[in-house]
Amino acid sequence: MDAIVQVNGLRKAYGATVAVDGISFEVCHGEIFGMVGPNGAGKTTTIECLEGLRKPDGGRLSVLGVDPILGSQVLRERAGMQLQQSNLPDRMKVWEALDLYASFYPRPVDWQALIAQLGLEEKRNTPFAKLSGGQKQRLFIALALLPDPQLIFLDELTTGLDPQARRAIWDLILAVRALGKTILLTTHFMEEAERLCDRVAILDHGRIVALDTPSALIHNLAAEERVSFTLLGGVSPALQQALAQLGSVEMNGDQVTVSSPNGRARPLVSEVVSLLTAQGAAFRDLSTRQPSLEDVFLSLTGRAMRD
Amino acid sequence: MKSLLKMTWMEAKLFLREPAAAFFTLAFPLVMLLIFATIYGNTPPPGSTGSQGAIDALIPAFTAMVIGITGLMAVTMTMATYRENGILRRLRTTPVKPLVVMAAQVAVVFVMTGLGVLILLAAGVLLYHVRLPGNPISFLGGYALSSLSFFGIGFILAGVLPTARTAQVVAMVLLYPMLILSGAAWPRELMPAAVQKVTACIPLTYVVNLLRGLWAGEPWGAHLLDVAVLVVMLLAGAFISARIFRWE
């Protein structure tokens, strides 16, 4: 796989505060690469250095084959950028923004088609200030797609959106990736990273504390899978013994919880269900608890990561 | 070039959608004219020499006033607000050049202010039978030089001051004494000699002098000092604004 972004020992400090403390990674062609971590972890500083908006204090960067500062003109023509804090004039209409921004690029895509693709047709003539948070982000994605970019930067795209709008944006990002674009995004929602990203770098205090696919990160975590259910016909000793083969069993009347260390060949839940079915035991209210990226972050940093 | 045209057109539409800006630029000079004409009528004002009526003297003064207002307020506020709200930040991620952003702004304010002046002239002619200057092209040339040299002040204020709010306050603080002391609001001839000396330090004074002279049919050669001051302001303004432009 070709690396579209190469970061080697990136360092950036604001006065005495070190925002990014020597991080290195690569982003490959066609992947969605995520940087996750709490506010102040250094995600935005990193992405802004890659966009050529900030000058790094140290390290070697290559984005689409150029240095982001020296080749900023190339980068601006060929990469799509969505920024955490940016705006359009309040009274600029959706179509006007696309028409204007299209004129900045040598070979822009057809913005009329983008309006349809991003579901903004009804909002075509709506001024920017009257758009909802989700609609504004759709418009920003559309603006980022105008140069027909190979690489798209998305910084905290869904922060401040309600869950429904967030899910709609996720679908949109997956659709954009299906067009063959490479996406580098930051988020502080672990669920978002888990859903979207092919690979995730977890940042904390300006360093990468883990970098892998979400499933590998979760798989390698020393945590437990847990399956709970209610038995309808009581618990026979034979069943209890068979369950104990799968993991530690806790009984509370009819309620049973089986837990087992993370990283089994087959998910615990499917083993439990096949066992119960094989034994002819009736059950209901089955629920499972599997470790998530949230748990990965917790175990790596010792802190919870809620926003 | 295409982006400059699109951006200028877009900024023009945005300008007209902003009621306050549109009012102050297009209608305010007209309103001032109507008020003053109601007070004075078109008879020679006290202290004036020659046969010009009050309105004839007011039109170049109001033109200077509008130049001061748009140069200091319209340009400053638009640029400062664009930066504070992250509108320039968004533009920065595209290949568009700062010069295009600034040129579009200058073009729009220049044309809109010019329209305001034309409305003022038309009202003067139609309502008060003002006699147009001997050489209207020369007067419009004076308008062009004066307004472009004043826009530089707006860009510099917007570039230097941290927020839109401080930019607005500083622009007001500069504007009001300028309007009063430059002779734009009433004739400098009526001011005490000591105050007249102070007015020589005020850029707008040179606009008032030049426009009054051109309106009265005097040649540019009679106003070399005014022209020199304004040309220096124009060049310095363009140079400094381009140097200190900040996206964020």
CATH class of the largest domain in chain A: Alpha Beta
Poorly predicted spans of chain B: none
| Topology order of chain B in helix (H) and strand (E) letters | HHHHHHHHHH
Counting DSSP E segments of at least 2 residues, the number of strands of chain A comes to 13
Which structural category fits the helices and strands of chain B? Answer: mainly alpha
Strand content of chain A: 25-35%
Q: What value does the Rg of chain A take, in angstroms?
A: 24 Å
Based on Cα principal axes, name the global outline of chain B.
Answer: globular
Can you give the mean pLDDT of chain A? 90
CATH topology of the largest domain in chain A: Rossmann fold
Distance between the termini of chain A: 34 Å
CATH architecture of the largest domain in chain A: 3-Layer(aba) Sandwich
Can I get a quick summary?
Chain A has helices at residues 43-50, 72-78, 94-102, 111-117, 133-145, 163-178, 190-196, 214-219, 237-246, 268-278, 293-301; strands spanning 3-14, 17-28, 32-36, 58-63, 79-82, 151-155, 182-187, 199-204, 207-212, 224-231, 248-252, 255-261, 283-289. Chain A is an alpha/beta fold and 307 residues long. Chain B has one domain.
